[in-house]
Amino acid sequence: MDFDQVLANRQSIRKFKSTEISDETIREILNLAQLAPSAGNLQAYKIKIVKTEDGKIKLKEATFTRSFIKQESVLSAPVLFVICADQMESEKVFKTRGSDLYAVQDATIFAAYLQLAITAKGLASVWVGSFVEEDVRSVLSLPKNLRPIIIIPCGYSDEEPKPRQRKNLNELII
After folding, report:
1. In what order do the strands lie in the sheet with 124-125?
2. Residues contacting 146, CB < 8 A, separation 6+
3. I need a surface site. Which of 83, 94, 115, 124 has the fewest CB within 10 A?
4. How far apart are the C-alpha atoms of 134 and 142, rounded to whole Å?
């Protein structure tokens, strides 16, 4: 799939087949996403991969019960990527701006690249930002320096997404 197709095909998918994703495919996706730019090339983020039913159920409770995180049916995403900002790593170089902004940007840019890599591999994903940070931190036993930024459920799509509506480009250019 060429880059234009990846961009055009990336959609938010909320229903997933139960088909497992191989560790090799997960590694390939992460290797591609790791090419994302970051402040000072620090790559001030960490990734927690959740594949267990227990982990999915606990994360669902931390995400205001988003049904696409862990559905009761076979449609649950087989893999959840939890992207965390490593604020202390960025603070070492960039002080407060690093911890408050750059680490969050690094994690967010990585997550966007992750979604594109997922699409390029023929898989689907959705961006989940609606959660209680402290609950996610507790569920995953994250150290204090890691701030959970985004959860990306990943799997094979089990739905036909609706066409995306986009603003006219003239509305965005100022």
Report:
1. 45-50, 79-86, 146-155, 124-125
2. 46, 84, 85, 86, 87, 137
3. 94
4. 9
